[in-house]
Design goal:
Layout lengths: L5 H16 L3 H14 L5 E3 L21 E16 L2 E8 L8 E4 L3 E8 L10 E2 L18 E8 L4 E6 L6 H6 L4 E7 L16 E10 L15 H12 L6 E4 L12 E4 L3 E8 L6 E4 L3 E5 L9 E4 L8 E8 L4 E7 L2 H7 L2 E7 L19
Parallel strand pairs: 1-2, 2-5, 4-9, 10-13, 12-19
Antiparallel strand pairs: 2-3, 5-7, 6-8, 8-9, 10-11, 13-17, 14-18, 15-16, 15-17, 18-19
This protein binds copper (II) ion.
Copper (II) ion binds next to loops.
Length: about 375
């Protein structure tokens, strides 16, 4: 295998960025300066981001005028275990796969400080699908190890949106399938509405980030291990070209949202599931439940679809679904490509407490001998 140095990779990434974008930096400087005047004088709040599946503290209905919401992402290149037998040299925002979800309201400004510590090897940046212009901010946020930058954008569209690293060329899919993606929820200022336009609120919300990984194997079938994101690149891109992921998981690892870390709810509660897939399509389904309200494509400006059995996430999208649990027990939330769910890992558990409703379901006769 041909060895490539870190410097060669950084140079290659920089060249491909220029080739893909062909953009002039000067134009963006002017645009950025203009934005500074628009958000001046607004109240500033710091949003403390938390590890998924949890959401940061937020109001469902905005209080007062639009704000500048300050968030901070620190990029960490680090090894993570994604199954009993495989590790990945992951690239992360704040150390988790997926990256933390941000929650703001429409017309708020998001002011992100993006930090690339000098302990990392690669250049990174961020493309917010919720933002307008400059490749979603990617052109304005390229940070080499040892650098930080601040980006501010106005959240003009209500919905759930993916954000991800997009440093150019092959580095775009490589960083995304190494874990460098997350989501932002931009709530309508007056909160969510049901299919009839009536206000609807959630009792809990969870963020599920679905991630496809492409881990190379040795000749004997074992997964290969690498010491850095640079060392893993050539082999991993080889697997990526097959379009056949070795793993498709929720929240960074097979079983990450099962057992002790299963999602929890009570019968009678409305739960909002925000599900992102930054690279591939997915088709979520809640076994034993329904997509009561599904904001297809992630837009809160459109009426939600109702009572869906399975819904769709086009790759590069986040989608929100609300379900009111009406029975207790174990519910499985999965990608209803059942091969991906069961063999590759795309499944989560929801443990629901409450009292069983016999009217909705009853075991009339226990399984036993035929005619017995
Ligand atoms: Cu990156």
């Amino acid at each position: 295998m041909k060895k490539t140095t870190r410097r060669q990779f950084i140079k290659a990434a920089a060249l491909t960025t220029a080739a893909v974008t062909g953009a002039s930096e000067r134009w963006y400087v002017a645009a950025n300066a203009h934005a500074a005047t628009e958000s001046g004088g607004l109240k500033r709040v710091v949003q403390k981001l938390v590890k998924p599946p949890f959401l940061p503290e937020h109001d469902q209905v905005a209080r007062g005028k639009p704000k500048v919401v300050q968030v901070r992402l620190v990029i960490k290149e680090k090894e993570i275990a994604i199954s009993d037998d495989a590790t990945v040299q992951a690239m992360t925002f704040n150390g988790s796969v997926p990256a933390p979800i941000m929650v703001v309201h429409q017309d708020d400004y998001v002011e992100l400080t993006l930090v690339n510590p000098k302990t990392n090897m690669l250049m990174h940046n961020i493309d917010f699908h919720a933002a307008s212009g400059a490749l979603g901010g990617a052109e304005l946020t390229k940070v080499n190890p040892g650098q930080e930058t601040v980006l501010r954008f106005k959240a003009t569209r209500a919905g759930v949106f993916v954000y991800h690293c997009a440093p150019g060329g092959v580095m775009i899919p490589y960083h995304v399938v190494s874990g460098m993606n997350g989501a932002i929820m931009v709530l309508p200022r007056d909160g969510l509405k049901d299919a009839n336009g009536r206000p609807v609120r959630y009792d809990r919300a969870y963020y599920i980030g679905e991630q496809d990984f492409y881990v190379p194997r040795k000749k004997n079938g074992e997964y290969k291990k690498y010491n850095s994101v640079v060392e893993a690149l050539a082999d991993t891109v080889g697997v990526m070209r097959t379009l056949l992921p070795s793993h498709v998981v929720f929240n960074g690892a097979v079983g990450a949202l099962t057992g002790k870390t299963a999602l929890k709810a009570r019968a009678g509660e409305r739960v909002l599931f925000i599900h992102s897939q930054a690279n591939r399509d997915s088709r979520p389904h809640l076994i034993g439940g329904h997509g009561d309200l599904v904001w297809n494509g992630g837009s809160f400006s459109d009426r939600p679809a109702t009572n869906l059995e399975t819904w769709f996430i086009p790759g590069g999208t986040a989608v929100a679904m609300m379900h009111k649990f009406v029975q207790p027990g174990l519910f499985v939330y999965l990608n209803h490509n059942l091969i991906e769910a069961v063999l590759l890992g795309a499944a989560a558990h929801v443990i629901v407490e409450g009292t069983w409703d016999n009217d909705l379901m009853t075991q009339v006769k226990k399984p036993g001998a035929i005619g017995g």
